[in-house]
Amino acid sequence: MAVWAVGDIQGCYRSFRALLAKIEFNPKKDKLWLAGDLVNRGEGSLETLEYLYSIRESIEIVLGNHDIALIAAYYGIKKSNATIDPILNSPNAKKLIDWLREQKFLHVDHQLGYCMAHAGISPEFDLGMAIGYSKRVEERLQSSAVESWLTKMFKNGIDGFSKELSKIDIDRYVLSSFTRMRFCYKDCRLDFEQKCAPSETLRAQELSPWFRCKSRKSIELKIIFGHWSTLGLYEDENVLALDTGCLWDGELTAARIDKDKIEIVSIECFC
To answer: Does residue 174 sit within a domain?
Structure first.
């Protein structure tokens, strides 16, 4: 059995299937970890979800910001667009959306030594906190009050964590950190505006990637994440970043993570 982690697909169905063919993925015996942003922008968003649903026993998914936006569009909270309209207009829309709502924000595998979240894990969270707070927002997303809850989540976010925050503000911080963060300040406050690659200019503004925050709480597992196409493929002893900008004339990337040495396989994206 092989275990492969794949970066942001964003509806690029043909590229995704080509990548699976290249790594010889077999859903009957292999496992696929998907780092979120399954849909939006690419023209094959419906096909992507339908295929993933068909192999749902063989995959682990963490939700990304675009997946949350799709769920919100289903409930009329966010505007739809041409790439997700086919999902919302599909006779299987409710089944697919309900299935997405059942997915995680954090996947943990102690045996393999990895965990996965779309944007990463807040520098203010240790692993226990990350597990607890991810379950908290998963329960909210799966609840009968999901529409009301999601409406509140799209208001102004919170850039710093405190247990003294209101319940809603804690949820906003947790959801935003798992799905939208890239940079943080020295005091671990998150910046949700910058989308570019790390640079000297940003360093002069005391902004660094969240995983390089000097006061970041230790996580004993290697963190797989996507979300950051301008960062691209990146690996150090603590993290593995897999969003290689498939939609932006880049590549779609998979990493085999069940061996002692990570194997990287990429294809040019043609959506």
So the answer is: no
